[in-house]
Amino acid sequence: MTKSQTQNQRRKTKAINIGGVMVGGDAPISVQSMTKTDTRDVSPTVAQITDLAEAGCEIIRCGVPDAQAAEALREIKKRSPIPVIADIHFDYRLALTAIAAGVDGLRINPGNIGGEERVKQVVEAAKGRKVPIRIGVNGGSLPEDFEPDKPLHQRMVDSAMGQVRLLESLDFDLIKISLKAFDVPETLTAYRMISGMVDYPLHLGMTEAGTPRTGIIRSAVGIGALLSEGIGDTIRVSLTAHPREEIVAGYEILKSLDLRQKGPTLVSCPSCSRTEADVVNLAEKIADALLSIDKPVKVAVMGCAVNGPGEAKDADVGIACGKGQGILFRRGEKIRVVAEADFFDALLKEIENF
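Request: output the structure for the sequence above.
Response:
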């Protein structure tokens, strides 16, 4: 699927403004994360937000476990380089405090925020400050007595639509929706269903996805499948890891579908019995080095000096490794031969020159 095909097929949604970042409409699919610091501890939280912004995070969400955390958002918002969303569970009063603190958006969970009157108070406060609300449905936190005989995807959609109708009845339409579960097929079905029912932007993700080894795969399958169908306006890859890993994974998913280009792309062969150099170690070292580069350069590390340049001819720069020496190439054209001891330094220099 080409970039133009993907863009043409993208579901048309209402655009909302989250602290200056547009979500939905024709805006690029944004990459989000969530802080893993104690929100009540302002300085470490701001430091992590700044670190994530430098990695490419465009919207950050902070957990709000109590009133102290809600109040801390005031200072966090002042010092944050990117829009801040307050993540609210259980106590609607925390949402009211967060709005007063100046947050750019809210995420509320309809499964535990409380009754209609409490939601109404939150909506009225959000409306006054034009603060968008994400209706964030998690499959694992739906009330047990809510439509117990229906499949999970239907329960998630019904729960979200109940909140949509409530918000709309209050003349509020700055809405974003997420329907996250651990189960990929259930999540896909839920998003596909609701995408045909509303035109609000959708936030994609898999909840409780796991550690990077498995969580990235689960997220790439779920998020990638939906994006390939034109569904989704903003994403978060939820991982049991430092949130920087979430940003890297998010952009890799978007790059793999040619939806956005952010930073380098590494092409590397898997290595096999024909390989006569340590391609695996070289590729890992280059991957680490590329983390500090923000330019959209395509780099190839290949294990065959005969076929490598041809197999990775669309790479901007690359190396094809052979026994004792390798061939540096640019766009498939050979540049020079380098000794095995110089593979890393020579390729890194070519990347920097490019």
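Residues 152-169 form the longest helix (18 residues).
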